[in-house]
C-alpha cells in the first residue's frame, strides 16, 4: 500500500510517498529556515504564505520521484494537529482537495505520532509495544506505544519543551535560527563543567519534564553579564546546557523503562538529532541492557515520510476522515494517561 504524506505544521513544506509504512519511495522537503533566520524564529503568517506557494510543486515532485501518479496512490495522509494553525490549514486543505478529487481515502495524522513513526522507516524489527521518548520543539513526552495507533503518556513537559529551551537559549546566546544545531556544534568545543546549572525539582509525577527554569536561568545569566559588560564563554555554556537537557531526558526515560518493564526504547523528534541527547541515551541503554532505536538525523526533523508511515497504520486501524477534517493547533495524543502518572 502506497501512502502519500503531507506535512506543513511549522516551516517545512513536505511531501513523501511511503510503501507499507516502512519503505520510502520519495521524501521532499522545502525548508523556510533561511527566510525565517532574519527574524530569529518562525513568523507564522510568513510560513503559511510560503506553504501556499510550495505545496503544489512539493507534492508533484514527491509523486515524480516515486515514479507514481496520484491514481497509483492508495491513500493521502496529512498532519492535522498540532502546530501553527495557519500552516496546518494549508496542508489539510490541500490534502482534502486531493482526496475529494481522486476518491482516495483521507488519513489524519497527529504530528507527534508521526515523529514516533520515523523509526519504522529505518528499524524494520521495531514493533509495539515499546517505550517512546519524543523530544522536539513543542513536545517532550515519554509514552508507551501500546500499538501503532495507541499511545499511553507516562510523562510530559509541564511548560517549555526541550527543543524550545534549546532554541530560546540559542537565541539569547546570539546563535542564528534554527538555534539547536548551533548549540550542538558549540557544545562539542565547550567545557560543560565550566557552569553549574540548576536542577529542576518537581512534585508529583517523577517522569514529567520542566525546562522553563533552565531557560530562564541561562537567559538571565546572559542578560546580567551583558549589563555588567562581562563576557560569557558561549561554547562552555552551550556544552553545559546540552549536557543538562541530555541528562534529564536520559534519566527519566531509563527510570520509566525500568518501572514499566520495557527493554526497548525508541527516541524521536527534532531534538533526537542532538548529539548530546543521542549519545547520553545510547550509553545509558547499553549500560542497562536496553535496545535503543533512533532515526537518522535526516528523519529527526519535520518530514512527510514519517506522516505517510503513521498514515499507513492509521488506515489499517480504520482511522480516516472526510471533508469536515479541520486543523487543530493543540491536541493530545490518542490514548490514555498511564496510571503511573497519578
Structure description:
The longest helix is centred in the C-terminal third of the chain and has 27 residues, at about 235-260. This protein has 2 domains: about 1-120 and about 300-340, Nucleotidyltransferase, domain 5, CATH 3.30.420; about 125-295, Nucleotidyltransferase, domain 5 (2-Layer Sandwich), CATH 3.30.420.40. It contains 10 helices and 11 strands. The protein is α/β, with parallel strands linked by helices. It has helices spanning about 35, 45-65, 85-100, 110-115, 160-175, 180-185, 210-230, 235-260, 275-290, 305-315, and strands spanning about 1-5, 10-20, 25-30, 75-80, 105-110, 130-135, 140-145, 150-155, 265-270, 290-295, 335. Helices cover about 40% and strands about 20% of the residues.
Flag low-confidence runs.
337-342
Given the helix and strand composition, which structural class is it?
A: alpha/beta
CATH class of the largest domain: Alpha Beta
Task: Tell me roughly what share of residues is in helical segments.
Answer: 40-55%
Spell the H/E element sequence: EEEHHEHEHEEEHHHHEHEHE
The number of strands is: 11
Q: How many H/I helical runs? A: 10
User: Strand-residue fraction?
Assistant: 15-25%
Task: Determine Rg (CA atoms, Å).
Answer: 20 Å
The major pleated sheet works out as: 6 strands, mixed
| Terminal residue distance | 40 Å
